[in-house]
């Protein structure tokens, strides 16, 4: 019985941990956000589809994050080919190098790329591209890229399938309603580096899509508690004043922000956008 009350107190603490920005912090953060969004626009408009990078092999992940952060010039549909197959760079493959592609990655896509693509499709409300992505996955038993034996990367996991079904339902105003959207999304323990990044992005998207989910409060609480120097973790956990303090100070990106130099800017912008969108 004691363990039950301890767990209940823990979850109540997690659920009540959201705060709000002061008017002065909101004003300062909005002004800085506007400047940095314009900086990203200037750096991106010369790239294919307006992406932050059109050659880095993590490009579709960060293009989707940029679209979610407010970069409305980013064409995330360029990450989904005519047959519905997702890719890492706009309109083309980026790996594996030993199969005649551009090189630089062991697989043509991965779950983190699909997460970024879904983020972008949600914010662009692009149900047509989401439908192509769904149909491709369904036809290929959710093997989303090559080589098909590298299941750890190219197989879309159950959480991803569920979120894609919810995304399609949301962006089509209920026209496409697949049973998978009723499956539970389950969040596990706090993880480091890129896996923690995916957890944060998944929580951010899932909060907008709705549906059954488990482990949400625990994951948010732990990420907010242990990742005190990560503005995105603070924002997703509802610690908006902490996020603003980080973003308005001498902020250093977490280790999962790597690759093209613009990704540091994209990360900052998403954390700021979530913080500014808080009530």
Describe, in plain words, how this protein is organized in 3D:
The protein has 279 residues and is mainly alpha-helical. The chain has one domain (18-276). The protein is built from twelve helices and two strands, in the order αααααααβαβαααα. It has helices spanning 2-15, 23-44, 59-68, 111-124, 127-139, 151-154, 158-171, 193-209, 216-226, 231-236, 240-247, 262-276; strands at 185-186, 213-214. A two-stranded parallel ribbon has the order 1-2. The protein is globular and about 50 Å long. The two termini are 37 Å apart. Residues 1-16 have low confidence and may be disordered.
Give a quick set of tags describing it.
single chain; 279 residues; mainly alpha; two-stranded parallel ribbon; 12 helices; 53% helix
| Global Rg | 19 Å
Please, how many helices? 12
What is the first-to-last residue Cα distance?
A: 37 Å
Q: Report the β-strand fraction as a percent range.
A: under 5%
- For the largest beta sheet, what order do the strands appear in spatially? 1-2
**Number of DSSP strands?**
2
Order of helices and strands: HHHHHHHEHEHHHH
* Major sheet summary line: 2 strands, parallel
Catalogue the unreliable spans. Answer: 1-16
| Average residue-wise pLDDT | 90
The outline comes out as: globular
What count of structural domains?
1
* Proportion in helices: 40-55%
Which class of secondary structure composition applies to the elements?
Answer: mainly alpha
User: What does the oligomeric state look like here?
Assistant: single chain
């Amino acid at each position: 019985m004691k363990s039950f009350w301890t767990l209940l107190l823990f979850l109540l603490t997690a659920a009540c941990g959201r705060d709000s920005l002061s008017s002065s912090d909101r004003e300062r953060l909005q002004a800085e956000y506007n400047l940095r969004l314009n900086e990203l626009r200037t750096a991106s408009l010369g790239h294919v589809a307006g992406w932050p990078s059109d050659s880095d092999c993590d490009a579709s992940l960060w293009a989707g994050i940029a679209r979610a952060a407010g970069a409305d010039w980013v064409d995330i549909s360029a990450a989904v080919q005519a047959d519905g197959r997702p890719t890492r760079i706009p309109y083309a493959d980026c790996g594996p190098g030993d199969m005649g592609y551009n090189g630089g990655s062991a697989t043509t896509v991965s779950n983190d790329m699909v997460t970024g693509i879904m983020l972008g499709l949600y914010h662009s409300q692009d149900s047509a591209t989401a439908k192509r992505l769904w149909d491709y996955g369904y036809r290929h038993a959710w093997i989303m890229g090559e080589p098909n034996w590298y299941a750890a990367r190219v197989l879309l996991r159950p959480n991803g399938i569920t979120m894609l079904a919810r995304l399609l339902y949301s962006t089509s105003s209920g026209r496409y309603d697949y049973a998978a959207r009723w499956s539970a999304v389950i969040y596990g323990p706090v993880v480091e580096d890129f896996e923690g990044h995916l957890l944060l992005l998944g929580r951010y998207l899932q909060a907008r899509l709705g549906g059954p989910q488990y482990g949400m409060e625990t994951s948010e609480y732990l990420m907010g508690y242990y990742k005190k120097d990560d503005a995105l973790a603070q924002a997703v956990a509802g610690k908006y004043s902490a996020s603003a303090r980080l973003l308005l100070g001498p902020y250093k990106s977490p280790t999962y922000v790597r690759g093209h130099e613009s990704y540091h800017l994209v990360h900052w912008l998403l954390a700021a956008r979530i913080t500014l969108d808080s009530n």
